[in-house]
Structures are given as structure tokens and as C-alpha cells.
Amino acid sequence: MILNRIAGAALRALLVVTLITFPSVMLPNTTSDTTLIVGLVAIIAAAFTFVEYSASSPSLVEFRDAPPFNRIRFGALFLTVFALTLILRGETQPSTLTRLFESFGGEIALALDFPYSPVRLVVLMLPDPTPEPVVEGVRTAAGLSYLVSILSLGLFVLVMRLRGWPARDGTFNVWVNLPTFDPTRGGDVVDRLRSDAQFNLILGFLLPFLIPALVKVTSALVDPIDLSNPHALIWTMTAWAFLPASMLKRGIALNRVADLISDQRKRESAAAAGSFAPV
């Protein structure tokens, strides 16, 4: 059991390293400074992942023992980085695969670029004047990233409904899978879970709209991120789409856990009432 956990942790750490280093490996003209920074971040992230998944109980990673919550999140993150990297690689080293992703991403971006949409707001946050190729690249990256986040959210909801996540096998340890949730902080556990869920759902829905607006407002005080840089574009658009989707998934998951606890209480109350029924 311990060896299996360590092997699984090592595999996850390797996947994290692959994810972080993929753009710097695939994109041409990556500077040595960028390579060093990426390598350092990859080592830190791999060490954190290995420690969290090899320990008997995690300290920060939520739903570690309730797959496929984290697998869906990682899959969406990897797919976004993979697709954006291939599109940007195709600008200097085109191939059939890069053209396919570029064409698909462009069509998706145009479909999602309507008034008041998150993709339109990302385009509008760009400073004036921004070259048209950069605008098109940002639009494509934003549209593709947002699509992946929406699909991953739908996949999680579908898995939760069809497989009875997270207690398909009847076992779910709340305190292990929610290590940052303090049950002794006060108040009813179910009410606090629902409150946290609502906060995550509201913020997760608003962030794709709020982030571009905040960037536009603060651009006069702080130099905006240079999205003409391929690495900056990949990680900025990935974070912009991934973080809100993760908060939405977390909100849905916390609501589900609250429902499980509430249903368990009802069953226990009914069983207690039945055991004391007059005969």
C-alpha cells in the first residue's frame, strides 16, 4: 500500500514536471533565463506534489482520495497548455498538427467573441495600440482556454451525477479530503460547507469578467503583461481560464459533500427514531 502510494506520487510529480516544462521545450528561441526559471518552478511543484500524494494525509491538496476531481483539473490544465503551445509553435515551425489546432482555436475564438463575453473582455483589455497579430493570438488563446475550462466543468458534473461522486463506494473521509477545512472553527459543518461553496461559485463565475476589467483599470498604474511573449500568453490565458473553473468545481464539490453529510444525518435520525418507537 505504501509502495503504491509512493509510486503514484512519483508519477504525478513527473506529470507536473512535464506540464510545466512543455512550453519551454517545444517553443523555439526560449531564453536561458526562462529555462532556468521554468526548471526551478518545475522542481518545486514536483516536490510539493510528491510530498502531498505520498503522505498518509495531505496538508493542502483537496479531494486527494476522491478521484477523478483532481485528475479532471489536471487534464484540463494540461490540454490547455498543450494546445496553446502547439498553436504558438506553429507560428515559426508550422506542421499539420499545429495548423489543425490553430484553425480549431480560431473558429472557437470567433464563436466565443461576442459582446460582453469573457473572450471579448480579454481582447478589450489589451493596450492601444496592439498589433493585430497579437490581438488575434490573444483571442485564439482566450477562446480555446475558456472552451477547455467549460468542457472540464461539464465533465466533472457529468461524472458526479453518473458515478455518484464522491462516495460511489460508500467511503469518503471529509477531513482527509478537505485538509484546509477546520471543523472546530465554529458553526454547523453543513452550513459552513454550503457557505464556502456559494463563495466559490460566485467568485468562479465572476472572475473571467473581473480579471480583464481589473487589468484594464490598473494598466495606467502598472505595466501590463506583455502578451506578445509566447510564454506569458500561454500561462496568463491558462490561469485566466483555469482558476475560475477550478473554483466552480470546488463549489459544486463542497455542495455535494454538504448534501452527503446532511443525508447521513437524516438517516441516523430516522434510525434513532425507529429504535425508540413504541411497540
Automatic annotation (TrEMBL):
Source domain of life: Bacteria
Transmembrane segments annotated in the record for this chain: 6-27, 34-51, 71-88, 137-159, 201-220, 232-248
Record's keyword terms, sorted: Membrane, Transmembrane, Transmembrane helix
Record's protein name: Uncharacterized protein
The species this protein was found in: Wenxinia saemankumensis
